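Task card 7
Instruction: Convert sequence to structure tokens.
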Amino acid sequence: MSQALARWRSMVFLISTTALLAVGCNHQESDKDVMAKVNGYKVLRAEVDKAYNRQVAGSPQKSSAEEEQALRLNILRQIIDDQLHLQKAEKLGIMATDDEVETRFAQAKAPYTKEEFEKKLKELGLTEEDSKQQIRRNLTLEKLLNKEIGAKVTISEFDIQSFYNMHKAEFNLIEPQYILAHIFIHAQPGPNKVENDAQARKNIESIHNRLDSGEDFATLAAKSSEDPDTARNGGEMPPVPESSLKTLDAATRDAVQKLKPGQYSGILPAINPQSHQQEGYRIVKLVGKEQQGQRDLSDTAVQQWIRNQLRGQREQVLKMAYDETLRDGAEIHNYYAEQIVKNAQK
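Output:
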């Protein structure tokens, strides 16, 4: 699957930046509490406030009025889009089942003790029902994505051959490249930074123990890694040219250089290359090393890379068009946006 599509289906448990949406129900509220309507579904101020407060939690400085408005507009747009998708899924009869929700919920709880999990929910201002509701939404969106986008994109051998012919020079490696994969666990910033770091460390240790017990790296990455752009590919990252190893943080660079193909590292700090701040922990695997020279289309790795590129491009276009058709056929009123425009005209 493509990075764009993966981001749309990404299910980051309990820390989603959008509101928790109830499927097919609304509480009765006064008009002033309704920020938007989507085919009759009322988007309440409380939903937007909850998502907004979760996003700004731990921020070192207060947002300006303009920054707050921009963020609320983005949140509201995401809620509207999600609601359109959920309504479509309901029409298609592909809503997540209770059994599917309970299974995913149990998986999410697995790394924690009962007390730790309850504390995590409390820190985020959520109940177990809130988290199950979010899981239900995400599973439903995933089903919709598979049916309406993923299943309708096909890549032929002719497509792959044509792409290779047009970009053949790009497959002539001027230097060796490292093929790496990782499993990443994020340590949430904020007032409980020390506790969050300790929990992230505990989670990555549990994953490392499972690897040591013989579990498959790619399978664990797909299930447990909190990097949605790589988790879908079993944690595999874009190839790293040998000369670019020096751009990696010291701990990762040293670990990679000591690994043999198929081996994985110990637990490493995950350093943001821009801020140079630690964001969590990860385990890195050396999948393989590509030698310099021309790579032929007979190479299965080349074929798969081209397939992923083409699929990503086509899924992105199809999703954009699909979302527009949903909006075209919907009755949407964004009262919050209307009020901002009205106030600017005074």
